[in-house]
Amino acid sequence: MNQDVRKLSNEILIALFDKRVELESLNEAEMVDFIREVMHRRLWLEYGATSMFDFMTRAHYHYAPSVAQRKIDAARLLQMFPQVKELILSGEVNLTQLGMLAAGLRQKPMPPKMQKEILESIRGQTIKNTQVILNERLEIEVKTRPKIRVQRDGSVRAEITFTKEQWEVIERAKDILSHSVPNGELTEVLSYCARFTVAKKDSSLPSMEVKPRHCQGVSRTARRYVFQRDKTCCYVHADGRRCDSRYQLQVDHIVSLWRGGRNDVENLQLLCGLHNRYKYEQEIAESAAVS
Ligand SMILES: [Zn+2]
């Protein structure tokens, strides 16, 4: 069935999307099971392939190497632990997590009983948490020695390690600088901070003050008050969760000025850049529908 998604209501669009996601995990789980069986029968040998990986990327199919590797990793884990299929199906683990687990186990082999425990521990976890759990459970060595190399165009390639505390401060700086460095790239955030420090001592560099966008007619005091009161984005999602992002925070009029809203702090709230824009677009759409 081919339908024009542009004509669907929000509710139907998400309901159909849910269905697709469900189908996607069903396909993924079955695909991994096929790969497991083909590997088990060593069928790739009959297709002029040198390995299952070769079968998947060159000899028979043309998957991107990283995609093929993730699927094969998952299939190997499935061969050992039959519950893997169920976990993929229910969405409790995805192939990225299984790939990370397999890569970790290649670095630090473990007896099957412990592998199973680790598999259990990554159920329902985010990618970031999965990495933390794997590093801890597999005792993957913590690297601290920096590697710095000057490249032929004069740029510098650096591999450095931050402590957990240093990293938290950097993440915080990223949030604060989200107006000035919207892409949040680490190199840009760090060089911004460095320039800021240098500019304090060296007047030849242009000033790097952080200038938040000002909301029409809202006093400095009111702005400061709203920032201290709300701290993060106040937008409440359809499922009742608050956004709480610190990205490009802006003071928003709950009832817009052009709809008769006022500049009192009761009518002000913090919104992140995305929700501020989203709310604005919704209002435009509503007013277009009315007129
Ligand atoms: Zn938000």
Task: Give, in spatial order, the strands making up the sheet with the most strands.
Answer: 1-2
Bound molecules: zinc ion
Discrete helix count: 11
Structural class: mainly alpha
Task: Bin the strand percentage.
Answer: 5-15%
Task: Record the SSE blueprint.
Elements: H1 10-40, H2 52-59, H3 65-80, H4 83-89, H5 95-107, H6 112-121, H7 127-137, E1 147-150, E2 156-159, H8 164-176, H9 186-201, H10 220-230, E3 250-253, E4 268-271, H11 273-290
Antiparallel strand pairs: 1-2, 3-4
Helix pairs in contact: 1-3, 1-4, 2-3, 3-5, 5-7
Bound molecules: zinc ion.
Structural commentary:
This protein folds into 3 domains: 5-137, no CATH class; 155-201; 220-290, no CATH class. It has 291 residues and is mostly helical. It has helices at 10-40, 52-59, 65-80, 83-89, 95-107, 112-121, 127-137, 164-176, 186-201, 220-230, 273-290; strands at 147-150, 156-159, 250-253, 268-271. Helix 1 packs antiparallel against helix 4 and helix 2 (52-59) packs antiparallel against helix 3. The protein is 53% helix and 5% strand. 17% of the residues are buried. Zinc ion (ZN) binds next to helix 11.
